[in-house]
Amino acid sequence: MTSSQTELAAGALKVDFDGQVATITLARPERRNAMTPAIWHGLAAVGAGLPDEVRVVVVRGEGPSFCAGIDLNLLAGTSDETVARAQDPDFEQQVAGYQAGYLWLADPRIVSIAAVHGHAIGAGFQLALACDLRILAEDAKFCMKEPALGLVLDLTGTKPLVDIVGLPRAIELCLTARTVTAAEALLLRLAELVVPRAELDAAVDDLVAALLATDAAAARATKALLRQAQGHTREQQAAAERRAQATLLRSRLPG
Ligand code: ACO
Q1: Contact (Cβ atoms closer than 8 angstroms) between residue 45 and residue 73
Q2: Which of 69, 145, 152, 207 allows an S-S link to 123, with CB 3.0 to 4.6 Å?
Q3: Would the CB of 75 count as within 6 Å of ligand 1?
Q4: What's the whole-model pTM score?
Q5: What 8-state DSSP symbol labels residue 81?
Q6: CA 194/CA 117 separation, integer angstroms
């Protein structure tokens, strides 16, 4: 087993690789882990360079908050960094580059877990939504702030939000920009588990161990099947199951 740490985005992102587990830590606690394009590109780089052996990716935040969303200095024009501007002809391309930092977290080769404590706002809430599973500390708070700031969600959050909470609740949460407590998040299925703050790391470790205890190839094929189930009829999905099983079992045949 290999163990190593990489820093990206001038240290605002730390990535620890420990065998089959990668842990991504948002590491700008003095700004409540507020996000910038460098961080989104850093996340995309982690996804693009993920070693094949990695099966579980944990995303967490350092300090009092998981993530306070976009760095508001970018919107105010008071940051050293710039963010895509309306007048940029390649605006959508730039945003696609930011979204790449989120999309890979749904890849069937891995299971991604957001370990959320404190605030997860806007881009931070979307980051938690980009993960397959969410384990929350009791002090966790979600807020989709974008519409209140005159923006839409554009960091891949709309689809998982609607898939998880349903359209009416997604409309209500986004268009009021209200805060969802951990207790409500559990009711809305935005959290798989809520634990006391002091037990968050241990709860994540337990989940990681349970996920790693299953067969790697079967786990990957099963996640791929589950992810496509919603868009399929029962018959299409039954056919997909047959195909996946044949592929999986044949991959183990000798020779
Ligand atoms: N961008 C830039 N700086 C931030 C951000 C942010 N999103 N969030 C917090 N900070 C800074 C604060 O300005 C403060 O800096 P200072 O120490 O120089 O004064 C420092 O981080 C600590 O922030 P506090 O507000 O003092 O921390 P607290 O723990 O009391 O509150 C909270 C945390 C709730 C996250 C609060 O900071 C907040 O509401 N931040 C803004 C959230 C926001 O609107 N994000 C944009 C969402 S929309 C999107 O992401 C697209």
Answers
A1: no
A2: 69
A3: no
A4: 0.98
A5: S
A6: 10
